[in-house]
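Usage

Read records sequentially. Each one opens with the input sequence:
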Amino acid sequence: MARISRRNSALKFYLNGRAARDLHGLTDLAGNLLDAYDVSVIRARAGLFRRAEPAAKRNVRAIYNVRASALADRFRIEEGVRGKGRDSEELISIWASTRQLGLIEFGGRWRGPARRKNGRLVAGASAEIVRGKRKTYDSAFIATIKGREAIRVRSFDRARGRRFGRGPVRMLRGPSPFEMLSGVGHEPSRQVRDATLSDLTTYYFLELKRQFRLNRGA
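and closes with the structure output:
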């Protein structure tokens, strides 16, 4: 495309910007449409910002059997720009904690102190990390230490080849919010990620259309 020459420019037709909005007819036609779209993007983005965290939590709990209270303050919505200049893109990001949650938050339960019954030990504590897939953890029990209830096991005595009868214990943990949402590592997490992206895409598309219809007629 040839560059405009100042000398022989008899007529200028502005496609956008302030000059275009001042031209008769263009203000009502293109200018208002552009304004309506810009306003629609801002409002749809604000709605998306409010809905992103609830959508993430809802989809996490649809796949993982985790208490709602365990996810409090574990997610944060951030926004930013990727790229520079004309290639820049606005985006939002769902920040998720990488700290693993206690296994007890995933439907942890235990029948009581281990005792021999018919010559066999009572099964250890169990948890259901992924819904419908409960697992029993050998020698695990539920105990409250320093005011925190958790599923724990006694440390392993390598010299004797078995766990300590009394002494050090450690808390068993499940996945972190990041591991449950990022789609990295295993299939349940990918299901959560895909469902969340689908929810956000559907909402943003429909809300952008709705806002544009409202603002175009304003």
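Summary fields computed downstream for this record:
- The CA atoms of residues 155 and 168 lie 6 Å apart.
- The chain has a mean pLDDT of 79.
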